[in-house]
């Protein structure tokens, strides 16, 4: 039985019911506040996505918080070197749960052109868990917005991930 | 001037409560509690509207749309943000002074909400029309700085502490121009009572008589409410998020709530002191009051999204070397003006 069926037919047009879980999923997926952090050139595209032409604010994702304590989303934008890896991991650990990570661009996905270099981490998923990978070098702002909307779908439908795990 | 719509409503509700409880004292107590609940509801709703307004006006000024996907015209965006903040993990830093750190966000809301007790919302609609109304507002508003200091100190974080020290410096230097610019108005009305200040503007608004005091007051209020160009307390390029750096989830949301409550209080104070309060032709007083308050809030947001942030030394120099001498000069000019006015008539 669906939860909606509890409402009597007389009230169907006037009453909206949901679960706390559903409400939180709706709220979290509509208010992803990214951390103001960028590692290299992908960060320029990230800034561009928030500016007038692409306007990330339409979805309510434009609140870039400077403090990791108030951020929900970590956009790893750029090349991650082994020297930068400990601060990045610390920033991730300072964020409160539930937290999400987007790996933006080829370097963050798997090292990009520097994949074989001694100094570059071959993909940020070696350091922190990643929710969405966005390919591109750098990805266009539309690609970043699409990635964030995919993350929104992922937050709304966690059962899909559980199926894949099995 | 006729009594406001809200006064009649209150009298009507008191009669009903008296009928139900059968005791005039309990009925009046009930109505006072009801009024307090109503003012808290109004403040919370106003905060949600202001956050939405801020993001849409920011979009308007930067040639964007702003939030427009969540709910009709993006109206549910702030609601989603608030619910999300409630669901976030509550992180308490291991080295923080737990008790002080925990109570600061709750205490911060008290001075922010307490000043609403003396604001005249309509003719006769005022919680406590005390004889030292404007003095009370200045005294209570400046208590907020203690809590910024407390929160920054208790976080045991260098950025928080630097933000707290900046907050103290900034608010001390904004209080004095505010007090001196208000003094010119008090000299003209001869009363500290808020309702007297409003009724003194039935002929001409004080913005026309005291333009210099108005400009000083607006600039100093921007400093007092930590808004750009003076949002040095939360200057994210320099000190991350100032005193709020270590606060997450709902605790941070309380800081946010107090910030917008202060902004609303600043707008109400501007309207009451300079723009004739609830007075206006044709419409009921409360609707003029709401219109004027939101017009002032729009101006504050316009300023915020138009100007860049100043440096701390520029802000201090502006406050102590420009605003304070100008305010003192304004008091002298007002005194001379009042003397000449009395001499002529």
UniProtKB/TrEMBL annotation, chain A:
<feature type="binding site">
    <location>
        <position position="41"/>
    </location>
    <ligand>
        <name>[4Fe-4S] cluster</name>
    </ligand>
</feature>
<feature type="binding site">
    <location>
        <position position="107"/>
    </location>
    <ligand>
        <name>[4Fe-4S] cluster</name>
    </ligand>
</feature>
<dbReference type="Pfam" id="PF01058">
    <property type="entry name" value="Oxidored_q6"/>
</dbReference>
<keyword id="KW-0004">4Fe-4S</keyword>
<comment type="similarity">
    <text>Belongs to the complex I 20 kDa subunit family.</text>
</comment>
<feature type="binding site">
    <location>
        <position position="42"/>
    </location>
    <ligand>
        <name>[4Fe-4S] cluster</name>
    </ligand>
</feature>
<keyword id="KW-0874">Quinone</keyword>
<dbReference type="InterPro" id="IPR006138">
    <property type="entry name" value="NADH_UQ_OxRdtase_20Kd_su"/>
</dbReference>
<keyword id="KW-0408">Iron</keyword>
<comment type="subunit">
    <text>NDH-1 is composed of 14 different subunits. Subunits NuoB, C, D, E, F, and G constitute the peripheral sector of the complex.</text>
</comment>
<keyword id="KW-0813">Transport</keyword>
<keyword id="KW-1003">Cell membrane</keyword>
<keyword id="KW-0472">Membrane</keyword>
<keyword id="KW-0479">Metal-binding</keyword>
<keyword id="KW-0520">NAD</keyword>
<comment type="function">
    <text>NDH-1 shuttles electrons from NADH, via FMN and iron-sulfur (Fe-S) centers, to quinones in the respiratory chain. The immediate electron acceptor for the enzyme in this species is believed to be a menaquinone. Couples the redox reaction to proton translocation (for every two electrons transferred, four hydrogen ions are translocated across the cytoplasmic membrane), and thus conserves the redox energy in a proton gradient.</text>
</comment>
<feature type="binding site">
    <location>
        <position position="137"/>
    </location>
    <ligand>
        <name>[4Fe-4S] cluster</name>
    </ligand>
</feature>
<keyword id="KW-1278">Translocase</keyword>
<keyword id="KW-0411">Iron-sulfur</keyword>
<protein>
    <recommendedName>
        <fullName>NADH-quinone oxidoreductase subunit B</fullName>
        <ecNumber>7.1.1.-</ecNumber>
    </recommendedName>
</protein>
<feature type="domain" description="NADH:ubiquinone oxidoreductase-like 20kDa subunit">
    <location>
        <begin position="41"/>
        <end position="150"/>
    </location>
</feature>
<dbReference type="InterPro" id="IPR006137">
    <property type="entry name" value="NADH_UbQ_OxRdtase-like_20kDa"/>
</dbReference>
From TrEMBL, chain B:
<keyword id="KW-1003">Cell membrane</keyword>
<feature type="transmembrane region" description="Helical">
    <location>
        <begin position="252"/>
        <end position="276"/>
    </location>
</feature>
<feature type="transmembrane region" description="Helical">
    <location>
        <begin position="99"/>
        <end position="119"/>
    </location>
</feature>
<keyword id="KW-0472">Membrane</keyword>
<comment type="function">
    <text>NDH-1 shuttles electrons from NADH, via FMN and iron-sulfur (Fe-S) centers, to quinones in the respiratory chain. The immediate electron acceptor for the enzyme in this species is believed to be ubiquinone. Couples the redox reaction to proton translocation (for every two electrons transferred, four hydrogen ions are translocated across the cytoplasmic membrane), and thus conserves the redox energy in a proton gradient. This subunit may bind ubiquinone.</text>
</comment>
<feature type="transmembrane region" description="Helical">
    <location>
        <begin position="323"/>
        <end position="344"/>
    </location>
</feature>
<comment type="similarity">
    <text>Belongs to the complex I subunit 1 family.</text>
</comment>
<keyword id="KW-0874">Quinone</keyword>
<protein>
    <recommendedName>
        <fullName>NADH-quinone oxidoreductase subunit H</fullName>
        <ecNumber>7.1.1.-</ecNumber>
    </recommendedName>
</protein>
<keyword id="KW-1278">Translocase</keyword>
<feature type="transmembrane region" description="Helical">
    <location>
        <begin position="282"/>
        <end position="303"/>
    </location>
</feature>
<dbReference type="InterPro" id="IPR018086">
    <property type="entry name" value="NADH_UbQ_OxRdtase_su1_CS"/>
</dbReference>
<keyword id="KW-1133">Transmembrane helix</keyword>
<keyword id="KW-0830">Ubiquinone</keyword>
<comment type="subunit">
    <text>NDH-1 is composed of 14 different subunits. Subunits NuoA, H, J, K, L, M, N constitute the membrane sector of the complex.</text>
</comment>
<keyword id="KW-0812">Transmembrane</keyword>
<feature type="transmembrane region" description="Helical">
    <location>
        <begin position="20"/>
        <end position="49"/>
    </location>
</feature>
<keyword id="KW-0520">NAD</keyword>
<dbReference type="InterPro" id="IPR001694">
    <property type="entry name" value="NADH_UbQ_OxRdtase_su1/FPO"/>
</dbReference>
<feature type="transmembrane region" description="Helical">
    <location>
        <begin position="125"/>
        <end position="150"/>
    </location>
</feature>
<feature type="transmembrane region" description="Helical">
    <location>
        <begin position="204"/>
        <end position="223"/>
    </location>
</feature>
<dbReference type="Pfam" id="PF00146">
    <property type="entry name" value="NADHdh"/>
</dbReference>
